[in-house]
Amino acid sequence: MKKNLLTFVALLLSICATTVKAESLQTAVLVEVMDSIVQRSSDGAPYSKSEYYYGAQGKRTAFISYSWNVANNRWEYSYKYGYAYDANGYRSLEIYYRWDNVANTWRETEKIAYTNDAQGNYLMVTNYQWNTSTSTWVENFKFEYTYDAKGLRLSETRYQKDNTTNAWVNDYRYEYTYDEKGNQLTQIASNWNKTTDMWEISYKTRNEYTYDSKGNKTIAIYYSWDKYTDTWTTTNREECTYDSKGNVLTVQCYNWNESIISWDLYYKYEYNYDAQGKLLSMTSYRMESTWVEATQTRYTYDEQGTNVSYSAYDWDKANQDWAMNFSVEYYFHYGEEAVPQIFGGQSSKSEKIFRNGQLLIRQGNKTYNVMGGRMK
Q1: Number of C-beta neighbours around residue 281 at 10 A
Q2: Which of 231, 201, 205, 230 is nearest to 220 (CA)?
Q3: Residue 335 in contact with residue 352, Cβ under 8 Å?
Q4: In this predicted model, what pLDDT tens digit does every residue of 224-238 receive, in sequence order?
Q5: Which CATH number fits domain 1-28+235-324: 3.40.1390.10, 1.20.120.450, 3.40.30.10, 2.40.128.720?
Q6: Residue 12: enclosing H or E segment and its boundaries?
Q7: Whether this model's pTM surpasses 0.85
């Protein structure tokens, strides 16, 4: 199922694909609070749980994971993350802990420090490892980022810390360019050559786009760079169609067949919407001399138009029908404000909560429990 889930996510990231967003009620400043997630095996037995805690501004301050001890019939700590934020509300620190069953305490393992600009873009991300011998944090690696005036990322460079010389050493780098619409045109990846002390290009990609009169992306062609011949090689192509509202209707995917110097059509997606333009289903097909159903995802909405569930299916050739893979159901907690959960304290919610909730997500043999969920 993991493979299918990743495939489903990849479908949503298609160059022409639309994104379904949960829409909040507009009567007040509303929030939704996730309290915990419980995962269960096919027989209903629990095996992992996650709990979420929040700070005074509603920012998540901690995430704790538990595993189910069958012998003792109880939840036991596994690992946790602690979070901190800068003055602008952007995440500035993330610390990872593992539970030490012998010492019965949390052990620091790793932390990440973030430096952000005023728009929340990462300027620098530094990774630290906990040194158990010295009981100190040791710098491991870091990324540095640059952006253009529009906030589009121009480069990201990774450095590795040399603990012998205590110096940062170049590792690898990505550089990007964009068209006037903000779509990525090129990516250049380079590795640092320690012998020559120079950047050496490891690979390059280039994208070309065609737009219709409404600015919709109708054709995308992808190229990779052959460093041995110093030429661009055509790799993939996507063609998209849209309805009058700008919703994508179809996406057809091609691979470049060098032997016959032609495009091979191998996959397509079809999208179906309701009268309000909300996505109802997304169906994918494989080309096997003719189109064959592959996967389908169906979406449902509540009376406010909020996406409350989706179900993913695989095509069952034997039965010539769709077979359920997994489903996810969302129940939102709507309120004008929420008293946050404080790390290490008791879970609490505002008196302005409209309705209490219960189990909200069902995904195959996993059940996710979100408290304060909005009931239909």
Answers
A1: 15
A2: 205
A3: yes
A4: 999 888 899 999 999
A5: 2.40.128.720
A6: helix 2-12
A7: no
